[in-house]
Amino acid sequence: MEYPKKLIEVALPLDDINFHSVKEKNPFLKNHPRALHLWWARRPLAAARAILFAQLVNDPGGQRGWGHKKGQTKSEAQQKRNKLFQIIRELVKWENINNEEVIELARKEISKSWIETCNLTNDHTEEFPFIWDPFSGGGSIPLEAKRFGLPVLASDLNPVSVLIPKQARLD
Q1: Residue 87 shares a structural domain with residue 138
Q2: CA-CA distances (angstroms) from residue 156 to 34, 132, 153?
Q3: 43 - beta bridge partners?
Q4: Does residue 149 contact residue 107 with C-beta atoms inside 8 Å?
Q5: In total, how many domains does the chain have?
Q6: Buried (b) or exposed (e) across 48-60, using 16+ Cβ within 10 A?
Q7: Cα separation of 55 and 5, whole Å?
């Protein structure tokens, strides 16, 4: 059984992700949790959002003959990929962290890819798989997975890292 390639396996708008991740790590950014306490290993939320999205969304081209629809050309697949890149560009902006329209658009794409993958593999589409982060640290990945409405399992060896998601009600 061949699984469809995910967007992260093919291409990402890395310049946009990097720009907003560096901007988010700035300790002087106003109205940002980073300004409250400098947690040494906290990962940028922008990068966590982008990577989760790209891991869960199918690439429109690839081994399926430029798409799951017969007759799709390379340029049509690239147009669909650019649409997904635009979603990522909007997701990584700090201004859009609570923008429900952007988050809902991402949720729809994730759901669409999940249903497509389940149909290809004859799996159940009722519930998403758990996002498991065994070394969650500051909790960026579990937080962003919850923002997308996904079930999460997170743990860590550091008791402070276990406490952070519990305080944010991610457990």
Answers
A1: no
A2: 21, 11, 11
A3: none
A4: yes
A5: 2
A6: bbbbbbbebbbbb
A7: 9
In one-letter notation, the amino acid at residue 164 is: I
Q: Which residues contact 158 (CB under 8 A, 6 or more apart)?
A: 137
CA distance 17 to 82: 15
How many whole angstroms separate alpha carbon 94 and alpha carbon 31?
10
| Same domain flag for 121 and 138 | no
Please give the chain's pLDDT, 171 residues, in tens.
Answer: 677 889 999 888 988 988 888 777 665 656 655 555 555 566 788 899 999 999 999 998 865 554 555 556 788 888 999 999 999 999 999 889 889 999 999 999 999 999 988 888 888 777 888 899 888 887 888 889 999 999 998 888 888 777 766 666 554
Q: CB–CB of 90/102 below 8 Å?
A: yes
- 1 within some domain: no
Residue-range definition of the domain harbouring residue 96: 7-126
